[in-house]
Amino acid sequence: MASLNSVKAWDEECDVLICGFGCAGATAAIEAYDAEPDAHILLIEKAPPEFVGGNARVSGQSLLISKNAEALKSYHRAMSAANPVPEDLLDDWANRMVNLEPWIQKMAADVGAEYLHGAGWSSRDVVLEFPEFGARAAVAHTATILPVPSGVWLALKANVDKRNIPVWYESPIVDLIQDPDTLEVYGAWVERQGERKAVRAVRGVILTTGGYEADPYLQKNYYGLGNVKPLGTPYNTGDGVRLMQKAGAEMWHLRNQGQSGGIWPGIHDPRQETSYLRNFMLPSFSWIDVNSEGHRFYAETNELQLTHYKMKSNGTWVDVPLHVADPVHMIFDETTRQAGKLVMQIMTWSALVNDPLNGREWSEDNSAEIEAGLLQRADSIAELAAKISLDPAVLAGEVEAYNASCAEGVDRAYGRNAETLQPIDNGPYYAVRITPAIVCTGGGARRDMDGRVYDHHGKVIPRLFEAGELGSFVSDLYQNGSYLTEAMITGRGAARFALALDPSILE
Ligand SMILES: Cc1cc2nc3c(=O)[nH]c(=O)nc-3n(C[C@H](O)[C@H](O)[C@H](O)COP(=O)(O)OP(=O)(O)OC[C@H]3O[C@@H](n4cnc5c(N)ncnc54)[C@H](O)[C@@H]3O)c2cc1C
Fold first, then answer.
1. Most ligand 1 atoms within 8 A of CB, residue of 483, 485, 488, 489 to mutate
2. How many domains is the chain partitioned into structurally?
């Protein structure tokens, strides 16, 4: 932390400083404005305007809607059994969740956008990730705001714009300014387009800087993964995690049993920092994934997107071991190659931000990516194996065994869905490297639903707040639509709580 001694004069003064313009930051800014339109709210964002929006912008935009607080509580308690969440926090989450929908509907209506039950891009109106833990009673339905893609984010951004809330772009928070004894937060050091500015925040600072998906050091040291890429923004580099540690906060959920959001099959183009997501809606199944030794290692097509890429092993839900089996290759044939884009177009930073800004788009039949050398092609499986440094006999044997399972209609090795047993027999053949790709990292400071942050003695750090994915209360398994709604709930709670503080009295 920096102390008041580091400040010669304040460069800017506001009531509430909100750091990070994703879902939680936008929500906090809107709520603060609506609670007190004359208050001076300042929203700062690390990225330039064309890269704003964080993971919220490129997410699937699914929102969890619940109408039954008791059932939601019990569902979340069961999903968190490996690292239980305090009961009072569960209570608060569930009670706020059952009252959230009208606010989301208002956000949509106020900017002329359509609120919809369902995801907007699939016919499913609800995703029930873990039915055995009570998902059916807990989840009323999934909701979103149109258009697809990015509709929820676009509506929040339009609401911020409409209120003329000042935003400083290219302005990361770099330090909190605190009393070293009481830990009370007075403001922050912000690097505004290269210049350091001391910003006084008389009522409070809310950190909404997202996770550490794009920080290789934290990925290695907190999660133990050296080989993953983010699916979302490259600007989420764990700045909030580091600031919270410096501020004296107690940390939690840095290394959930699974990375909660899961480890998904990505396709990484070396020209980008972030990863594409393999298309889980591809209508062709003549493909398998093989591990570093050329063997299959899981049931690839069992709708794993519906459990955030968790599979059951030894009776427990664990991450699909894409990161363990690395390097993984997807092996497919001409039928799959022609079936459509190999990557999702409705989410990910690569498809929705990088490609349009660079005047690119993944080609419909994947031919441009073959030309570019991202996908390997060969006339036989043995030849393909040689191109990706696998033993030709092993890979050919694996494809042969898989094709035999298709003929039999049963995958005895891994239990892949019978209706997806489509042989790999229409040459030429292709391979693409699968990168373990990360959705979210929920770790951060321990907090409550009003975003109040606790120190190591269980005391609130005065005037410091946190909302959204940074410090998420999700501690293990994750239900679709919870992260965006948690960002809304904690963003709203933190904004209201901070504004209610008397600037002159220590909290
Ligand atoms: C591919 C994908 C699909 C997803 N699908 C869903 C879904 O369907 N439903 C769901 O609920 N969740 C989903 N999620 C998760 C969800 O998007 C995030 O959990 C959510 O966006 C978190 O909101 P946030 O505001 O905390 O962080 P973000 O939305 O990531 O915003 C963080 C912001 O902080 C900025 N920032 C970072 N460091 C600094 C700094 N030092 N100073 C200032 N600003 C900074 C970043 O640039 C960014 O703009 C998905 C995520 C991904 C990647």
1. 483
2. 2
The three-class DSSP label of residue 191 is: strand
Instruction: Quick: pLDDT tens for 342-382.
Output: 999 999 999 999 999 999 999 999 999 999 999 999 999 99
- The CATH number of the domain where 217 resides is what? 3.50.50.60
> Which among 451, 414, 423, 426 is positioned nearest to 25, based on CA atoms?
451
Looking at the structure, do residues 187 and 50 belong to the same domain, yes or no?
A: yes
Strand pairing class (195-207; 444-445): unpaired
Instruction: Say how many Å lie between the CA of residue 377 and the centre of ligand 1.
Output: 36
Distances (CA, A) of 294 to 236, 272, 287, 311: 34, 27, 13, 21
Contact at 8 Å (CB) between 475 and 85? yes
Residue 188, token pair as written in the block: 């922050």
Q: Whose CA is nearest to atom 38 of ligand 1?
A: 209
Question: How far, in Å, CA of 459 to CA of 142, rounded?
Answer: 36
Backbone angles phi, psi at 273, to 5 degrees: -80, -25
The closest-lying atom of ligand 1 relative to the alpha carbon of residue 348 is 1
CB 452 within 8 A of CB 497: yes
Q: Which amino acid is at 184?
A: E
- Ligand 1 centre and the CA of 3: distance in Å? 29
Q: Whose CA is nearest to atom 35 of ligand 1?
A: 20
454 domain-assigned: yes
Pocket test for ligand 1, best of 55, 218, 478 (most atoms within 8 A of CB): 55
Phi, psi at 236, each rounded to 5°: -85, 90
CA 417–ligand 1 middle distance (angstroms): 33
pTM score, whole prediction: 0.98
Q: Tell me the pLDDT tens digit for each residue of 23-35.
A: 999 999 999 999 9
The residues lining ligand 1, judged by C-beta closer than 6 Å to any ligand atom, are: 19-25, 44-47, 52-56, 58-62, 172-173, 208-210, 231-233, 235-236, 239, 347-348, 439-440, 468-470, 481-484, 487
Q: Ligand 1: which atom is nearest the Cα of residue 210?
A: 27
Q: 417-461 pLDDT, tens per residue?
A: 999 999 999 999 999 999 999 999 999 999 999 999 999 999 999
Which amino acid belongs to residue 442?
A: G
Q: Give the residue numbers spanning the domain of 319.
A: 263-438
pLDDT digit string, tens, across residues 296-325: 999 999 999 999 999 999 999 999 999 999
Let me know whether 243 and 269 are in one domain: no
Backbone CA torsion sign across 378, 383, 384, 387: negative
Which atom number of ligand 1 is nearest to the Cα of residue 55? 30
